[in-house]
Amino acid sequence: MNPIDMLAEAARIYPAWWLAHEARPVTVMELAGPVRAVADPDSRGRQFIAVKLCMLDGVRAAGFVLARRKGVGKWSPARYLLNRVEASGEGGQCAASPKIGIAPTAADPALAIHAELEVARRALERAARQIAALYPEVLRIDTARDAAIAAQERGGA
Fold it and tell me: Cα(63)–Cα(60) distance, rounded to whole angstroms?
């Protein structure tokens, strides 16, 4: 699953999950019907949902992040926990807060995704400015390398 599809899938699943389970850890078998319907619209089964949730482990979307707790023994099922995350300032850092008493509205996921995309856009702009600042130095080094190779070829021929 590519990152864009993963974010879209998480943005569909997380709000339904929060309404059904909030921050309680659950196994795939304990998932509420509405969450199963969103995660597995074609009713492929428990293992399909388990694989999908495994891929979403640690993915932040729609103001939430999913955490996976591996089972203790070989046959113990993994438990999944959905936490609310809040942006904390310019750096795009987030603080997980599993206790929140307000149910999300229909607009919350879209606003959270927009905020995450804005943070990512700013980070890309900073990286582009840093690369642009290094470009003259890269050209200088490239020219010096070409001159050294040419001098070596003239001297060796």
Answer: 7
CA neighbor of 6 nearest in space, from 43, 56, 41 = 56
pLDDT digits (tens, 9 = 90+) for 98-119: 443 444 555 566 667 777 888 8
Beta bridge partners of 86: 95
pTM: 0.55
Q: Are 104 and 15 in contact (CB under 8 A)?
A: yes
Query: CA torsion sign, 15 to 20 to 26 to 27?
Result: negative
| Number of other residues whose CB lies within 10 A of the CB of residue 62 | 25
Q: Which tokens belong to 114?
A: 């927009």
User: Strand 64-69 vs strand 79-87: parallel, antiparallel, or unpaired?
Assistant: antiparallel
